[in-house]
Amino acid sequence: MNRAQIRELVRKKRNSLTKKQQQEAENALNLNLIQQLKHYKNAKIALYLTNDGELGTNKLIQSLRTLNHQVYLPVIHPFSAGYLLFQLHEENSPMSTNRYGIFEPKLNCSQICPIEQLDILFTPLVAFDAQGNRLGMGGGFYDRTLAKYYQEQWQKPIVIGLAHECQKVDHVPTEAWDIPLKWIATPEFNYRW
């Protein structure tokens, strides 16, 4: 299958999950990751708000705040097309809808965290394989934003893909610009390479 076919197939799979299955998956992911991240104190952690059947992150966001971590959400960069910024998000932060219909914090430059100062960055994905290859929605936002991080082999942030187990495929065809992941978390497993 090519990339477009994989995207279509896997998006159908994850969108066919019932509300109950989605909630159970979100709860299980939260328990899995809180255990994995328990040694972090006052960390700067970037997440995303769930869209298009993605694995839910609201419970994890609440848990991280309860543990005194700072939560950052992606904002489409206003000047560098195709890139993301990560902005502090608190419970009462003003939000807006971006051009893709996804909620993001209203841009406040004083609350942006440079990527290299984040401790952990959770990334959404459409599909992944056993080699850590990630297939996104096709816009390339995370690949472009993380390119310098991978080229220079920064020590942080730790980049973790989040997915339902049904998003795992046998093989993700890759392109030169694709950024592989060393850790993908599902509600059931932690895949690390």
UniProtKB/TrEMBL annotation:
UniProt-listed InterPro entries: FTHF_cligase, FTHF_cligase-like_sf, NagB/RpiA_transferase-like
A Pfam cross-reference name: 5-FTHF_cyc-lig
PANTHER family: 5-FORMYLTETRAHYDROFOLATE CYCLO-LIGASE, ATPASE INHIBITOR/5-FORMYLTETRAHYDROFOLATE CYCLO-LIGASE
Top-rank EC class of the record's enzyme: ligase
Protein family according to the UniProt entry: Belongs to the 5-formyltetrahydrofolate cyclo-ligase family.
UniProt keyword annotations, A-Z: ATP-binding, Ligase, Magnesium, Metal-binding, Nucleotide-binding
Binding site for ATP: R3, A4, Q5, I6, R7, R134, L135, G136, M137, G138, G139, G140, F141, Y142
Cofactor: Mg(2+)
Binding site for substrate: L49, E54
Protein name, UniProt field: 5-formyltetrahydrofolate cyclo-ligase
EC number(s) per entry: 6.3.3.2
NCBIfam families given in the database record: MTHFS_bact
GO term, biological process aspect, one: folic acid-containing compound biosynthetic process
Catalytic activity, as annotated: (6S)-5-formyl-5,6,7,8-tetrahydrofolate + ATP = (6R)-5,10-methenyltetrahydrofolate + ADP + phosphate
